[in-house]
Amino acid sequence: MCGRYVTPSESEIERFWHLGRHNTTNPLERRFNVSPTAHVPMLLLAEDAGLLLTRARWRLIPAWWKNDKPPRSTFNARSEEAAGKPMWRQPVARARCLVPALGWYEWKSVERTDPRTGEVKTVKQPYFIRRDDGEPFAFAGLMARHAPADGETEWTCAILTRDAEGPAKDIHERMPVVLAREAEAAWLDPGLDKGADALTLARRHSVTRLGHHAVSLRVNNARSEGPELIEPLKSAA
Q1: pTM of the model
Q2: Whose CA, among 55, 124, 209, 230, lies 20 to 30 Å from 106?
Q3: Which tens digit of pLDDT belongs to each residue from 63-92?
Q4: What number of other Cβ atoms are within 10 A of residue 100's Cβ?
Q5: What does the alpha-carbon distance between residue 75 and residue 96 come to, in Å, rounded to a whole number?
Q6: How many Cα neighbours within 13 Å face the side chain of 20?
Q7: Long-range own/partner contacts, residues 63-69 (CB < 8 A, 24 or more apart)
Q8: Whole-number Å distance between alpha carbons of 31 and 225
């Protein structure tokens, strides 16, 4: 799964995906501890402008949703079943996007020795998973426009997930789908209108050779922010 991640700055996104200023709306600052329901940067394919950078609420709410309360746990979509689930079926077929990231956090139970007491304790240790070169990448995303009865229409999104492979499997059994750069255009291509085909493409062309390192327990607090959150934990085994 992916429940927390790090977003690139607007300038990093513009540079990496070769965007012009006219391709940006609702700019967002770089965040080091993004959690579900926050606004996040999202890239979509605009009909007349190529890639468009905008913002979206990280919790997909489909256009047909009529309940006052939003659906629960729709920030991740399992790629193995998304094509057949009502929540994801339409976005998989017709509303795919890219969610820019620098990495994500995952947790693993490890034993640590308390330096004050010498007692060995089991803690949920956060790890930061990222590209070895530190460059941005894109999660395979799904999107939907939500029009609440008492608010403004906004984009919402979810991140596609898969069984973990490569180094990320050392930390957790699931991981987000990190699209290979050469597969991004195909993922966004509206001509690929069969949901199952799109999901097969995403899994087949996902990046799994990623590095990771332990980071501060401060990440556990969703209100923590700052570049120090992604620094390697010196005392980690």
Answers
A1: 0.91
A2: 55
A3: 888 887 888 889 999 999 998 899 999 999
A4: 24
A5: 14
A6: 3
A7: 63/90, 63/144, 63/145, 63/146, 63/147, 65/146, 68/149
A8: 7
